[in-house]
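for the writeup, i need someone to sanity check this before i put it in the appendix. the sequnce is what the collaborator sent (i think, or maybe the updated version? ugh). structure was predicted straight from it, no edits. if anything looks off just tell me and ill rerun, i have time this weekend
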Amino acid sequence: MIAENYKKIIHLLLLTAIFAAVILPTMGRVSLWEIDEGRYLVCAQNAIDKGRWIIPEYNGRPRIAKPPLMVWLVAASSVLFNHGKVNEFTARLPSAVAAFLTVLLLYLFIYNRLKDPDTAFFSAFVLLTSYLFVKQARFAITDMVLLFFVTSSIFALINGFEQEKRWSVIGGFILMGFGFMDKGPVAFVIPSCVVLLYLYSRQILTDSLKKRETLIGFLLFLAISVWWPLYVGKPYWEKFIIGSNVKRFAYNPSWRTSMFFYLFNFPANFFVWSAFIPVVFHLIKRKTPDELSLFFIWFCFVFVLFSISDTKRSSYILPLYPAAAAITGWALNRLKPLENRLTEFERTCRISKTLLFTSLAAIGVSGFGKILLKTFSLDWLFTILAVSAVYAFILYILREKTVKLFLSAALGFALIYTNVYQPLADKAFHSPKYCSSMIKEAVKDGPLFVYGSIRANELFYINREIHKLDLSEKARTKGVYVYTRKPRKFEKRFPHAEKILCCSYQKETLCLYKLK
């Protein structure tokens, strides 16, 4: 017992150290790239400066497109750690903390459920080093916070119903309520359906639903989640519940994708562990693990739910990643004592290793190649070659040890992605911060409009309200500044406008003009 507790402490310390090394170092140095990040930063700054806490304000207007929890978290982080000034680090800190807590929850749940510290560690490690998880942990958007509430509510409800812990059941419903305040109905749909399906498979569904704590918990969920929609009123129900949830799920012709989208998207975003999938299937076929039934149900439900949705994005299936990580962690631990036997596993392991090495080579050449082609630098070239050489050498040494190879490959990939690739890409491809700062400096306090769409990240960095240019003759005013991503179209419409500057903006050109 003492040895197990000691091992548990070592595992938790290791996971903490890996999290700190992968997620935190450059989190505040990389500019805002995800298109939705700026919305939460702008709303959080307005909450701090103007007191717009209940109904967030975005560019001079109320923003009710999403519940306000993420805005509150970003604002609270900025007040606590940066004297009320929102920046990239304080805005992303809530997502990072949510990611860390999710990793710890997965470890503790599997540790307590299976009494297997190695499977628990491998599962948490897989989650912490999978590509999409690492990426979302460094974004100031709702997805990682949602994942924490989905994961914690499922664990709380399962523990509560199976072990007859009243407060655990109630706590699960409370967590779903906070999840609803982060991203809406999906925070209730996923945990409740996963738990209902699992309880049904265990033939304890009817007894569980009859428990008094189920009703109490559901009422508490309603108390937490419904007050804000009721306060906002009809616009929230029409714009968010119906528009952003029901219609986007059932019918969205402007964003329609194939039903098989996630069959290709999930392996790409579960990298490097997607290369290990052949081994996972081989081990499951060899022995169907009853202890993983919850995670199979969890994975399949989320995968099918979003596959039949008319709107699909990579981040939508992030809630199934703890389940995928648990299944993969179980396989890693089962393979460990078997991998040295040159039996049926040899061919499967070779397939996984081939997938791993070819994918890493393709991703490395493509990712770093684009950076060097965009902005060549001898310093950058040396850094990339040195890091790649060390990484490749370590993997070559471990090529015969499948488990150690994948553990090292995953950790190395995550470290290189966050600490080398992202900072270089931020400089090479010119983030929104680069162009927005140039516009802010050129305009100073002058009147500024936009021709075309307003993007949130630009709005945050320019740090002022910006409205679309009114194209009616009466509204045109000499001396106003206008920026646009459509310079040719703008110059055709306003041939006498003075071009102040143009800069490269990711794959676009952003230009600033002054009307005469």
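Residues 240 and 383 are 46 Å apart (CA to CA). The radius of gyration is 25 Å.
thx in advance!!
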